Amino acid sequence: MATRSVRAARLTPFAARRIIRPIPPRSNGVHDTDSPVLAEASAAPDLQALPAGLSRRLQECQTLPSLPAAVSQVLRLSREEEVGTDQFARAIEPDPALTLRVVALANSAYYRRAGQDVVTCHDAVSRLGSEATLAAVMSFGLQAARIPEPLWHRAVIASVAARELAQRLCPESAGLLFTSALLQDIGVIGLLALDDEAYRRQLPHHGEHLRLMLAEHDAYGCDHALIGAWLALSWGVPPGLARCIADSHGPLEDGDMARLCLRLSGRIADARLAPDPGVALARLAQQLEHLEGLQAMPLAPLLQALHARLPAMSQLLALTQPLALDDEDLLHQGKQRLVELTLSLSTRLQQRHRELDDLRRENAALEQRSHTDPMTGLANRAWLEHCLDQRLDETTAQAGALALLFIDLDHFKQLNDRHGHGLGDRVLINFASALRELVREGDLAGRYGGEEFVVILPGETSDGARVVASRLLALLVAQPMAEVAGEPLFVSASIGIASLEDAPIGSAQEMIATADRQMYRAKRDGRARVSTVRPG
Length: 536
Ligand SMILES: Nc1nc2c(ncn2[C@@H]2O[C@H](COP(=O)(O)OP(=O)(O)OP(=O)(O)O)[C@@H](O)[C@H]2O)c(=O)[nH]1
Hints:
diguanylate cyclase; Nucleotide_cyclase; HDOD; Alpha-Beta Plaits; binds guanosine-5'-triphosphate; rod-shaped; two-stranded antiparallel sheet; Diguanylate_Cyclase
C-alpha cells in the first residue's frame, strides 16, 4: 500500500503560472511576437460586449448554479500567489466525492506513469500538479452544475486536444489551455439557468456548435463564450482563465499560437462529434493546410495521441459514453470519401454547366425567333419598330441622319391569283434574300407585313436612301424573283422614303407612316419608282 509522500511538495503557484512568459520566436515565422494569451493571462476578460439587459438578467438570476463549497475554495486558493499541496488537499478533503475523484485521477494510467497508487488527497494533488488538479476540481463542479452531456463530451475532447496541440506548438501554455478548453462552454449553463426550455431547444446536435453560436447571437446579442467568461468570474475563476474562455470560440486565423490551439481544440471536438466524423476531420485537415504555421503539423499524429488519451480521460471525468473512435483511421477514410464527394460534386457541376449552356443557347434561339419573320428570316414588324425607336432616340440625341425605305411589291395580288400562293411565297422569300444582300452592315431590313418590307438606314440622308432604293429597283429589273414554266418572273416595287432631315419625326410609327404615304404616292405615280417628301 502506498504511503503518504513525505516530500514537502510545493505546487507551482497558479499566479506564477499565469505570469507573463513570452513565447520565444519560432523558426516557422508564425509567432514572432509574445503570445497575447499569455501576456494578458492575468488580465480580466473584456465584458463590454455583453449586452446590458443580458448582464442584468444574469445578475438577477436566482437559478444560476453555484459551485460546491470545496470547488469554490480551490478556486479561491488558485488566485493566491503561493499555494502549497497541503492547502489544496485541505480544501478538497472536506468533500469526499471530490476527494475520490482527485485520487482516482491521480491513479489513472495517464498520470500514474511508473509510480505507485496514491491513496491520500495530498499525494494525489502532488502528482497531478496545479493545472490538472484545477481541471479535476472544475469538472466535478461542472457536473454538479449539470452541463448538458453533448457539451461535456465536447469539453473533454477539446481539453485533451488543446493540451496535445499546445505541447507541440506552445508548451508554455499547455496547462492553461487544457483548463480553458475544458471550461469553454460553461456559458451554456448560464443560458440554461436563464431560459431553460427555450434555450434547450437551441442546443445543437453533435458537431453543430457553430449553429448554436449563431442562434445565441441572434437571441442574446452575444454567444456563450462571453457569458461563460462572466460566469467564470462570478465563480471566482482566475481572470486570465476567464479571458481565455471569452476568447475560445473566435476564428482560427488569429496569428496567436496559444489562441489558435484553444480554438482549434473546439473544432477538433466538433469534427469528432459530427454525424460523419471522418469527413468532418478530413475537411478540418484541409482547412489547416492553408493555415499559416500549421502546415508543418499534420493532424493525423495529433488525432492518434487523442485516440490514446481520451478513453481514460472520459472514464475519469465520469462520462457515460466512451469516446473511443480511431481518429487516424477515420481521417484516412474521411479523406477518401472527401475525394469521392468532390469528384461527384464536380461531375454534377459539369452537368449543371452543360445544362446551363443548353439553356442559354435555347434562350438565344428563342429570342432570335421572337425577332424574326419565320417565312423570310428577316426582322419582323415588332423588332423593326423596336430598333427604329432606339435608332431615333440615338440619332436625335446626336443630331445625326436616319432614313427609312417602305417597299411594297407591285400587283402582288395579281401574281398570287395568276400563279398561286406557293409561287407568291417563293417570290417573297427570294426578294427577302436579295434585300438582305443589298443592304449594308448596320442597316436593318425587315418584313413589315404581307408583301411590305422596311429598311432602316442609320446615318443616311434622303439622297443616300434614294440611291439605295434605286439600286433595289435596278436589281429587280435585272434579277427574276422566280421561274414559271421555265420562264423568269420579274417583279417591281414601289418605294417610299422618310428621312429625319425632311421633317421632325417623334416615333417609329410616325416615320413608317411618312414613308408609307410616300410609297402610296409612288403607286399613284405609276409604280416601280421611288418617292420622297423632297422630290429628288
Ligand atoms: N403569297 C403570299 N401573298 C401574300 C402574303 N401576304 C400578303 N399577300 C398578298 O399580297 C396581296 C397584296 O395585295 P394588294 O394589297 O391589293 O396590293 P397589290 O396587289 O400588290 O397591288 P399594289 O400594291 O397596288 O400594287 C394580297 O393578295 C395578299 O393576299 C404572303 O405571305 N404570301
